[in-house]
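Tutorial, part two.
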Amino acid sequence: MTVEHDFDFLHRDWNVRHRKLTTRLAGANDWYEFDGTSSTRPIMAGHGNIEDNFIDDPNGAYRAAALRAFESDTGLWRIWWLDLRSPSEIGAPVVGRFEGDRGEFIADDRWNGTPIKVRFVWLKNAGAGPLWEQSFSSDGGKTWEQNWSMQFR
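Running the prediction step on this input gives:
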């Protein structure tokens, strides 16, 4: 399989179990869990996809989308996130690639006004199905704090 098909494993409808950290970048352990759904479809002749999510967060349910695009000349994926809580904001994409069944994607961002790095990790087969994890780093990527995961099933 060529690398532009790295995300083909995700092209379907899913039930999702979310796990989120309430207090981020503070050494907290205040996790909560909830369900949602996700549907991913290919676009641009398979060189990208769009993921539509319903996130049934007990703090307020919302819809969100991920847009992924593959750059053939670099072999890199770019992933943008957009959600209805702030529909006018779409930040810089996380950028990266898969090595085997693990994909890692990183970007510079801000959290509560502080510069951070954000990392998405995709595991194509994590037992019940694919697993996505988001982590933040406030020390330039030396250490990471995971703050959200989505187990697809």
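The CA atoms of residues 115 and 128 lie 35 Å apart. In part three we will examine how such features are distributed along the chain.
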